[in-house]
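Re: your question from the hallway

Yes, I did run it. Sequences:
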Amino acid sequence: TECKIASHKRCYSKYKTPCSGIADGKGRHPTQVFRVELSLLVGGSVKIPPLCERLMSTIERTGLYVEGIYRKSGAAPKVKELKAALEADGENVDLEEYHVHVLTNILKQFLRDLPEPLLTYTLHDDFLRCTGIKDERERVKSIFDVIKKLPKPNFDLFERLVFHLVTVTRHSDSNKMSPNALAVVFAPVLLGTSKKLQAQDAIAVVPQQIICVETVLKEELRTVKAKLDDIDTLESAEKKTGDRLDAVRASLRNSRQKSPQLSPVKQMSLPRQNTVDEEEEEEEDEEEEESVLGEYEEEMEDDMDDGEDGELAAEARALTRHLKSIHKEKHQLTFKLPMLETRQASSDEDMLSGDELESGSVHGRNEEYAINFDLPVMRPSLPQLNKQRISGPAGRKLPRQFAKKVQTARQTSAAEFEDTSEACLPEPIPTIEVCLSRHRQPPTAQGHVYADSMTVESSYVTVPGVLNLSGGDDDEIMV
Amino acid sequence: MQGEEALPKPQRIFKVVFVGDSGVGKSSFLHQFCNHEFRGNFAATIGVDFQVKTLETKTSVVTLQLWDTAGQERYRSMTKTYFRKADGVIVMYDINLEASFTNVRNWMTSVQEQVEPGTVTMLVGNKLDTAEEAGTKAVKTKNGQELAKSYEMLFYEVSAKTGANVDDAMEDLTRLLQEKEDKKMEEVLQLTEITTKKGCCGR
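Structure:
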């Protein structure tokens, strides 16, 4: 259908709103949120369906300590009422009026009602295959690799959801929802297959689904805890530095009163080393940060006017800078907290490349692309780049004129990529830059997975209606 | 201790299905009933669980097939299929959680859709211990009784943790199951009598 309307075949006839062209052609009631293709609920700056975001943050605010959250059901009439209200006028419903169990019910129902489960039919079998891996590290890695193949909207929502669930399970002392308990609840909600299964078979895959979700949750719980610890360390470092700064300033004031001027020679030697040493004494545990700071100072040194109070002033300045850098790093960590990634897989790089990609610097990656994925790459918007793929099998020699063209094309596109990626970085943050350069590898798979999944996604959006035709009742395991 | 031999071969087998909202304590109740212990773990049941318990009553030995279903909404469609050919259904709610009591009506609707008329049903309010200790009782005994009456169900308030009333409830259920069964048997017997009579007349 031209207007990209997405619906079940059965529901198609029920649409009352006429298609209003491609511009607005969502083909659904504007406030409808349930049983709607996920990609229609997001777009532009909206990465997660607003309803989900609101539900999750309300639950996080009010429900984290409720025993059996997500496991227990809310009162069915209330659930129905809220659902109807959300369908009618989602924005103006006060979610806090409802009990947490009702909210969790709605969230689960939303996920169950998606025309395709959040972790998609296509990847379902991949996920199940991963659960067979005995070695835990390997299993985590392969599951996360599959996750990266998710279409963008699904990935975003899944990322948020996992962070949310981790927040829930971090309070498992009070709410009793361990990662396993949550996995039992969420596995059948998130994973589903398009295959028609007998009830027995449908149950048989559930343990695997649970392992899958549980692995993700456990891993993320670990990561988030580690990140929180990092933030804690930074915070204590921040406090120490702050105290030290106060002390230095105080003594600075004192010394100013005593001797208004120090010898200028001393000023010049003003050794950076000194300050660094000082700080290393202060925070031995923060070695990484120290080295970062060292470099940071080096860059900043020249810009600063030397104060009259020599070492002390310098130290004060250094401390201020240090404080700033800690701030920044803390901020960065906080920002990264909900990111879905394995810690080993150089998190910084992963995250940045994701951002870059969004801003459209997908050119020039074709080579690695083709090497890393056996999926055919579809790139309708940039047909000329596809020609590069003619270079094909490594051994084959191309006719000369082609070979040359391909070569230049590659170079230019590679250059382009470099440029855009730089441009996309936010204003250079020295500390973080240093951090990155250590971790940074040449842009690798992770980025491409994104791009890849995006193409995949767009191709399935245009063939709606084939999925989940049986979707009459809310909750099928096919029987 | 009764050995295996002490229990003669069971004469009857009854299928009893447990339903109710997630987390009201169906599995715990069953565990208490079958093994006489409370296990505090908090894992949701997946799909369906199954236990067998043999009871000795005054007149005979019966076996109960106990089907413990998952309360999670996701499994609800599956749960429904287990009602078929059930001799007894136990609907459970959490005394401390009003929502679970409200949902009893929903459960009863799907039960009544599936089961044959004459199936024994029982309403059980669980977690009596916490209700008494913490005073968090949200559903009054009276309300439970009224609801049970309107559906012609048995009614018990129990505690799977302490075991209070668990055995009483199950014995009562078994008794009723047997009575129903006896009644049916008699009906069958009557039927044969009538047919033989007819046979007589025909000759």
